[in-house]
Specification:
Blueprint lengths: L2 H10 L9 H4 L2 H7 L13 H4 L2 H10 L10 H4 L2 H10 L9 H4 L2 H10 L15 H9 L18 H7 L2
Helix pairs in contact: 5-7, 7-9, 10-11
Length: 165
Amino acid sequence: MDKKKALASVKKDCRKFDNLPDILKNDKDIILQIVEEYPGCFYYVTDKKILSDKNFILECLDKASGDILEHLDKKLKADEEIVVKALKKFGNSLEHLDKKLKADEEIVVKALKKFGNSLEHVDKKFKKDKKIVLLALENAHPFGMENYIDKSLLKDKDIKKFLDQ
């Protein structure tokens, strides 16, 4: 299959990306065309150069309709520019970040403002911080959130108000 046919095929049905030959799954033009509808395409990208190409990934983040951080090179998961851009669109990207960034308050706040349920993935020091927990609860579906909050805060009246909704 040539590139033109492959592109036409995946534009009609993005799930066909999975069955492309590796050389086409690792083609930047094809990835850029499909990432908006199928951010999961990165699961099938095997070229380490692509997964660590910061400029290309920034371009993909502009188009992506879902989280792509999970599949990136470790270095990029720790790159603040990549992370901030991803978190602005997808707060749930926090799950795939470097541990150091999960302990960075500025990063955590950005993620929780977008997707409060990301409290599950923050450093445990934030699960004890009432201000951070309240921010998460304001931006989350409260079901199950008590599992991510330190026990010392579960009886707090402000937190209970959210959890009892």
